[in-house]
Amino acid sequence: MRRAAWILLGGALLSVGHWASAGEEDDARLSGGATTVFVTNKHSFGKSAANLPVEDLRKFAFGNRIFNTNWVKAPASVTSFDGLGPIFNRVSCSGCHVRDGRGRPPKSAGGPWNSMLIRLSVRGAPGEAPGPHPIYGGQLQNRAVQGVAPEGRPVVSYAPFTRELPDGTRVELLKPTYEIKDLRDGPLGAGLLMSPRVAPAVHGLGLLEAVAAKDILRLADPEDKNKDGVSGRPNWLPGKASGAKVLGRLGWKANQPSLRQQAAGAANGDLGLTTSLFPTDHRTPAQRKRIETPNGGVPELSDEHLDKLVFYLQALGVPARRNVAAPGVLRGEALFTKVGCASCHTPTLHTLPDAKPPHLAGQTIHPYTDLLLHDMGDELADGRPDHQATGNEWRTPPLWGLGLQKVVSGHTRLLHDGRAHNTLEAILWHAGEAKQVTRRFEALPAKDRAALLAFLASL
Question: CATH: 1.10.760, 3.20.20, 3.30.70, 3.30.420. Which one for 3-54+318-458?
Answer without folding.
Answer: 1.10.760
